[in-house]
Structures are given as structure tokens and as C-alpha cells.
Design brief:
By secondary structure, the protein is an alpha/beta fold. It folds into three domains: about 140 residues, no CATH class; about 100 residues, no CATH class; about 80 residues, no CATH class. Helix content is about 50%, strand content about 15%. The chain has a five-stranded mixed sheet with strand order 1-2-3-4-7, with helices on both faces. Strands 5-6 form a two-stranded antiparallel sheet. Helix 5 packs antiparallel against helix 6, helix 10 packs antiparallel against helix 11 and helix 11 packs parallel to helix 13. It is globular, with a radius of gyration of 23 Å.
Amino acid sequence: MSYDPAESHDQNFKMLLAENPREAITFALPHRSRYLRRDAEIQPIREETIKTFFSDSFLRMDVPILVKDKNGKLVFLLEHHHDPYSFSIHKLARYMLYLQDQYECRVIPVVFFPHAASKNKAIVRELESGLGDKQYLQFTYEAVFLKELRAKEYLTSRNLVARMLLPFMRYPSHAWLEVLDSSIEAVLEFTPRARRAKYLDFVLHYFNLKIEQWEAYQNYKRKHKPSEAPDMINVLLKEKGWEEGFVKGKDEGKAEGKAEGKAEGKAEGESFGKISESRNLLLMLLPKKLGQMPHKIEQALHGQTDLNRMHTILASLLELQSWQEVEQLLNGKS
């Protein structure tokens, strides 16, 4: 089976929401949290109960959460879309009605949009059907536009989901160290040790750190929070290969004192820098040429390590007419 970046993102979010259902609900619906009693039984609904819809790539990624207390039960239907163009309000309504019929209770649909703005015309917010003065159907949902939230307001939140989603929120470029540290500290404080490496992987993946940024973060920790446990963070990062990936070749050359080790580290650093620079240029210039970048193109760029292909796209920038052409060039097809 081939790797699908969009499905990987869906699974990442599904994991975060399903493992932290109470936090996910209270983060998405802070003004509705009074309906979530402390003694309520909260559990994600097993996929087998809704298997009819899992043949569909959209419905497969929903996270329905069943809440039971002495007042009854209700279902929170949590969904996320990295690509707003893949969202369908009709499918969401169909899924909500299915759950309402199966569990015979109220269903509250919530959709997370990590990259889209609330003004995006591709996102339909209401569904209506009527004739004359008779209204037969009216459907809407709660929408969470992460890029419009201010990260500053969640830096000290006790909600793990809020802190994990800080990379997607709005913050000034000079505040990235504080924002990154808030996410990492949340992992160390709120997650069981068995999950920490996985959650750190989530945070660092979406911050998309460069080598020099990682070094700046470690210096920041030593200067501002010397009593914290940076060594523990490094150990956890090594479990997922992050630390080794950041400093590969550099520390080896330093420790061994071998010229070839230094040369290899320098060459890898230079190559990494050129790839990163070309990727950033494409991420900036392509939307100006072709409009909003599709999610699959964005993910393909983040995963692209062939510098020649990137240079080919940059050289062809003026002639490009569609995102399909960009995809073909990323795949090595001219």
C-alpha cells in the first residue's frame, strides 16, 4: 500500500482526538462544556459500529465520541480537514443522521480546519431545503478554524489538545520558541510516558523545525528553564529518530575528529539547507501563481528531497498553468 500524506494527517488527528476525547470536546466547544459532566462516561465509538461508512475515505476519518451521564447520552462527532476542498457538508449531515438513528440521541457535529480561514468559500456552513414558507431541513455544525486562534491564549492551558494544536494557531514569528516549548512541556506534563515519544513526534512534525531552530530551542531551554529535564526530552526524541536526524554527521565528526565525518556532516547540512530553501520558495511562490495550494501538493513538497525536481519546478514557474502540472513535476514526470 502506498503512503498517503493526507491519510497520514487524518490518522494523526484521529489519534489525538480519540485518545483525549474530553479535552478535544472542551477545546472545540468551550461554551458548551457545561453539558460535559465530570462524572460522565466518555468513550470513542468503535469503528466496527459504523463500518458501513469506512469504505469511504471521508467518513472513515471521523471520530464519534459517546458521552453518557445520569441525564442521558449524546454523541460528539469530531472531524478534521487539512484540505477544505475535501469537506462535504452533505456527507457530514448524512453521517450525523446515521449516528442519531443508531444511538437514538442528540449528535453534535464539530469540524476542525487546521489551515483554512473562516471566509473560505469552499467551506459550506449551512444546509437548507424548503419550499415557500415551509422549511424541511436545516443543518449546521460547529467549526474550529485553528489558524484564526491566538496561540498566546493557550500557552498555559491545562488542555492537552489545545497545547498540541499550537503549531496551527496564529502567533508572531519571534514567539515560535515559546510556542514550541509550550507544546513540548504539555507532552511531558500531561501524557503517560508510553505515549510521550508519539506525541513529541506529532509536535515536531507540525512545527517542521530546521537544524538551527532545534539548536536554538535547546539553548532556550538551558537559559530559561535549567531546572527542567532537557535530557529526558532528548531521550524521547531519539526514540523517534528526531535528535539523530537533526545532528547527523555533525556530532559524529566532532567526536571522532575525522575529516570525512566533518565533510559528510557539512555536505548533509548544505544539502538540507538547499532543499529547505527551495521548498520554502515553492510554498511561497506557487500559491501566488496558481491560487490556494491543495493539501496533497503541500504534503508532497514537505516530503520532497529531490533538489533537482524542485529546481525544475522553479524554472518552470512562469509556464505552469495547473496544480496537476506541479504534481507531475514533483513525481518526476515532464
